[in-house]
Amino acid sequence: MSESPQGDVSVALYESFTQSVRDLADTALRTNAGADELARAQAEIEAITARLAADQIPGTHGEHCSTPTGVSGWGNTVVGIRNAAAMPLRFSVAGDGMRLWADFTPGALYEGPPGHMHGGVIAMLLDQALGELSMRSGHPGLTANLSIDYKAPTKLNTPLRIEAWYDRTEGVKTWTRGHITTADGTVCAEATGLFILPRWVRDLPPEEVAKAHQHD
Ligand SMILES: CCCCC/C=C\C/C=C\C/C=C\C/C=C\CCCC(=O)SCCNC(=O)CCNC(=O)[C@H](O)C(C)(C)COP(=O)(O)OP(=O)(O)OC[C@H]1O[C@@H](n2cnc3c(N)ncnc32)[C@H](O)[C@@H]1OP(=O)(O)O
């Protein structure tokens, strides 16, 4: 059993626990249960929440578990394995760090136009993909600019692929690009991002900056 930063809980158990919470959110959205059943379920959910809240970290997971250059990803709203609001995306990264991708099928929780993904959620996923690629390519930074062209409606409950690749670096500025495609290769949205190594990181000793990475 691998140990988490917070104790002797395995990663697999965190993943499975959080997936159950996600399933609850999806089911809560789509259930046809009547008033009595909803009231009973609500009381049970609130009891579980109170039980788990009896021992919890203050603030956010990232604040609690990060160092200046070692960013904790477990609470991340796109990839966080402990974040029930995250899909979560699971990126594969090319050996040279110059490209990454993830396959996913968004469900009802991510709806904007009926039956379609919310444009803000699309932007959020692309921000993460392009930002994570910036880091994986060895040029970490915060998003300074993200530009998105929405080319075709992005259907829910349909297999999609998100992909990001390296473009170029000029000093502290790195540009990456990416898109979301359907199984037949239709591009639903494409993006360009500018990621800047912030001044407060630039002011760290160079050996600290070189260690910038994302961990559990
Ligand atoms: C906490 C992470 C720290 C990052 C590095 C460390 C470790 C990274 C490791 C892991 C990261 C992990 C996961 C990341 C994955 C995905 C996360 C998704 C990404 C996000 O969700 S992230 C949140 C949203 N994001 C923000 O919250 C940024 C708010 N913002 C700022 O924090 C500042 O605004 C900043 C830092 C952008 C710049 O500030 P600054 O003081 O460091 O830079 P400064 O002013 O010195 O400019 C230097 C040169 O950039 C040019 N420049 C500046 N801003 C520009 C702009 N907007 N457009 C075009 N050019 C611009 C200047 O013109 C100058 O250019 P020149 O040198 O050519 O004159």
Automatic annotation (TrEMBL):
Q: What membrane topology term does the record carry?
A: Peripheral membrane protein
Q: Which InterPro entries match?
A: HotDog_dom_sf, THEM4/THEM5_acyl-CoA_thioest, Thioestr_dom
Top-level enzyme category: hydrolase
Task: State the UniProt keywords alphabetically.
Answer: Apoptosis, Cell membrane, Cell projection, Cytoplasm, Fatty acid metabolism, Hydrolase, Lipid metabolism, Membrane, Transit peptide
Tell whether Cytoplasm is among the UniProt keywords. Answer: yes
Reactions the enzyme catalyzes = decanoyl-CoA + H2O = decanoate + CoA + H(+); octanoyl-CoA + H2O = octanoate + CoA + H(+); tetradecanoyl-CoA + H2O = tetradecanoate + CoA + H(+); dodecanoyl-CoA + H2O = dodecanoate + CoA + H(+)
Residue intervals of the Thioesterase domain: 115-189
> CDD domains per the record?
PaaI_thioesterase
Specify the protein name: Acyl-coenzyme A thioesterase THEM4
Give the source species.
Nocardioides malaquae
Classification lineage: Bacteria, Bacillati, Actinomycetota, Actinomycetes, Propionibacteriales
